């Protein structure tokens, strides 16, 4: 962000060219690189010595930042793992779906569009992140709060699409069913949470009224 000079200007300075909409500034790019480095080094340490044995201080040292800088990006070691970078992509893809689709159909197509948009490196990272969450008891316990967050996220997305209130009974019931169904199936260590076919199967089962 430019800083204004305290000295009086003798003549009007030429206007700086405006950056393209959506293009990150240099400061934003540096912040994202720092965030990425912290996460990358954290996961390297988790692989090498285990999640429980890795400390915030070790992660900060490996990322060449101070512990206070670490906490500016992540409020805890848990959040290094739990923060979901795919959510903003999913929200964008969901908003782009045809308005004639039902909410569940729009979610299904958004899931497929989201997975197709991810590069191999990002998919690999997300698969490792999911495996860590599913295998570490400390992280599994923190999923209750993440589940609440996901229910609210989907309720907000559904409300935006349907014109309903996010707190409406039916909106929250749909959000809870979708999140709960996905978590119940995909927390199984034998399943790949990034397999679009499995996600589609969950959504279609719910849409059909969960016949057994």
Q: What's the alpha carbon Rg, rounded to whole Å?
A: 21 Å
The DSSP helix count reads: 10
Give the low-confidence spans.
Answer: 1-20
Q: What value does the average pLDDT take? A: 87
Beginning-to-end CA distance, first to last residue: 58 Å
The level of helicity is 55-70%
Beta-strand share of residues: under 5%
Largest sheet: none
Would you tell me the structural class of the helices and strands?
mainly alpha
Which of globular, elongated, flat, extended, rod-shaped describes the shape?
Answer: globular
Sketch the topology as an H/E string, one letter per element.
HHHHHHHHHH
Task: Write a structural description.
The protein has helices spanning 26-49, 56-63, 67-73, 77-82, 87-95, 103-117, 120-135, 137-162, 169-186, 196-207. The protein is an all-alpha fold. α8 packs antiparallel against α9 and α9 (169-186) crosses α10 (196-207). The protein starts with 25 loop residues before the first helix and ends in a 5-residue tail after the last helix.
